[in-house]
Amino acid sequence: MLTRHGGEAIARLGAWQRDWLLHAGLLNGAACPAAGMVFAWASPLPRTRDTARAFLDALLPNCATAFGHASSVADDGLFHPLESRRVRLDPARARAAVLAAMGGGLDTARQSGAGDVRAMEALVGKPAACENSPCGLSGLPWEVRTSAHKADVAGPLRVGAVMGETIRMQYADGWPLGEVAFGAVTKAADVKQWMALRAAKYAVLDTVPYLAQRGGSQLMSQVLAAIDDDRAVGSPPADARLLIFVGHDGNIAQLRSLLGFDWQLSGYPENDPVPGGMLVFERWRDTAENARDRISVRVRYVAQSLDQLRGLTVLSGKAAPLSVTFLPAGAGPDGRLPRSRFDALISAAIDWSATFPASYASPVATASRGE
């Protein structure tokens, strides 16, 4: 569920994006976009639909902008290609990839994570039943579980990752400081130390190349289709000039891995998919007559700081969200990469056997509010 505070934070980001588009001349502040100019599609989970609604309401106020979503996760091949059974994993290969990312095996992962597990256990304590037996966080077995449609970890890494994210969300959602992490957090900088297990979990799951390719290629193919209209795997409506996909942090992590895009935002772990953060793909057209490559692409990751989320900061030029620009080989100093090179980069990263024709023809549409 998206909290009221969380919805307002998303709206702040939507309003900032609106200002950016107005300044760039891509939106008309006096009127709603023409039909078909904006296309939005969300994951079917309630929190994600609420996120889409909050963002669109702020991006296009009073326009009652509709967005689509599949009827359920089982029908959602875009954001959940594995869970919807549109894409399969090789369980043995997935397990080997996860163990390799752990440094070679579960023992290595257990040793490297021992300090973070002990720290988290000291913070949250143990159930009374665990006083005389090893059943607290550190007593859980480390496991890797793979099937044809899922790769996951169990034990301290998974549970500790959830605990760390809970602490972060308490701070970001404006909880009284005495209640955030049982009073162990007094400022934004204190949150980062409790995110170590979550960062480690992402490092051995969604960002592992094999898993990112199998789980993220369909979504990346749709981004590419929007930039380069001659893809054969289907694409969003051709007349859309602003395409908005609203998914999950795992989707962001997978696309980051496919791009080879590393970032470090102040106050967050390296490559962290921040709550409400967004990957922005910009298509630029050079109108100069002597331009060699008229179309170029720039990719940025944009997210609010923890204190901006907590304080519901009105984002502006003086209080802009955090942002980092992707600088692949061949890009200019501003990050713009000729479309031909971008196309080659992404086409090589995508596992085309994990893509399939997309359909947006019969969405379950939900209109955002209009006044």
Automatic annotation (TrEMBL):
<feature type="transmembrane region" description="Helical">
    <location>
        <begin position="20"/>
        <end position="42"/>
    </location>
</feature>
<protein>
    <submittedName>
        <fullName>4-phytase / acid phosphatase</fullName>
    </submittedName>
</protein>
<dbReference type="InterPro" id="IPR029033">
    <property type="entry name" value="His_PPase_superfam"/>
</dbReference>
<dbReference type="Pfam" id="PF00328">
    <property type="entry name" value="His_Phos_2"/>
</dbReference>
<keyword id="KW-1133">Transmembrane helix</keyword>
<keyword id="KW-0812">Transmembrane</keyword>
<keyword id="KW-0472">Membrane</keyword>
<dbReference type="InterPro" id="IPR000560">
    <property type="entry name" value="His_Pase_clade-2"/>
</dbReference>
